[in-house]
Amino acid sequence: EMLLVESGGGLVQPGGSLRLSCAASGFTFSSYSLNWVRQAPGKGLEWISYISGSTRTIYYTDSVKGRFTISRDNAKNSLYLQMNNLRAEDTAVYYCARGGGVNDALDIWGQGTMVTVSS
Amino acid sequence: DIQMTQSPSSLSASVGDRVTITCRASQSISRFLHWYQQQPGKAPKLLLYAASSLQSGVPSRFSGSGSGTNFTLTISGLQPQDFATYYCQQSYSTPFPFGPGTKVDIK
Q1: Please, which residues have CB within 8 angstroms of residue A96's CB and are 6 or more apart in sequence?
Q2: What is the distance between the alpha carbons of residues B84 and A15, in angstroms, rounded to a whole number?
Q3: In sequence order, which residues have a C-beta less than 8 Å from that of residue B27 and are 6 or more positions away?
Q4: Cβ–Cβ under 8 Å, residues A60 and A84
């Protein structure tokens, strides 16, 4: 079974940092791009970052550029999101999702991890 | 950046109804358009990719069409498990935004 499992969420103060992890299993990890998508409470989905299988290509949405860093370790089948200088508006459930091939549709999703930024 | 819109933002329907949701891109995205379903409290699920290709395991009552800037998701014969929020997403050029969503609830 192809799985993605996020971890690392929690409560953090404004200006603080947090590192999310996403562990993959059941597929050839290095062959696929990966994404982070978040969802603020009661709101819609927001795509925030992409990393190619080789790690050569990385994209961010403007609201997290310079604060968040996506990375992956293909030897450990793991994806990461380092989040610095967190703001209240970063409060959300964070999902990792696999880019599944044709046009990079997000075909496998983790269950999500909640990040709350509050003092 | 490409902006995505969806209409309607919500709709009420009955079991067995045919439902159509529209997604529009602010510029041409060819067929780089995907549809997702999200049940409350759950992760999204891919329904259709490349505008009209059905993801493995998704019932054939879901269909998609369109290219360029205008796309539709149709559910033919709404089932109880289809009451959910539906999102479109473009992957033509970064950033890869989702539409704001369409909530389908029971009439």
Answers
A1: A4, A6, A20, A22, A34, A35, A36, A37, A79, A81, A109, A110
A2: 35
A3: B2, B69
A4: no
Taking the Cβ of residue A27 and every Cβ of chain B, the question of whether any pair is shorter than 8 Å is answered with no
What token pair was written down for A74?
Answer: 């293909």
Contacts of B39 (CB under 8 A, 6+ apart): B45, B84
Scanning B30-49 for CB atoms below 8 A from A yields: 31-32, 34, 36, 38, 43-46, 49
Contacts of A1 in chain B (CB under 8 A): none
Q: For the segment B22-75, what is each residue's pLDDT rounded down to a tens digit?
A: 999 999 999 999 999 999 999 999 999 999 999 999 999 999 999 999 999 999
Residues of A with Cβ-Cβ distance to B50 under 8 angstroms: 102-103, 105
d(CA B39, CA A89): 23
Range 38-97 of A in CB contact (< 8 A) with B: 44-47, 50, 59-62, 95, 97
Using CB atoms within 10 Å of the CB of residue B3, give its burial: 0 to 12 exposed, 13 to 18 middle, 19+ buried. exposed
d(CA B72, nearest CA chain A) in Å:
17
pLDDT lower than 70: segments of chain A: 101-102
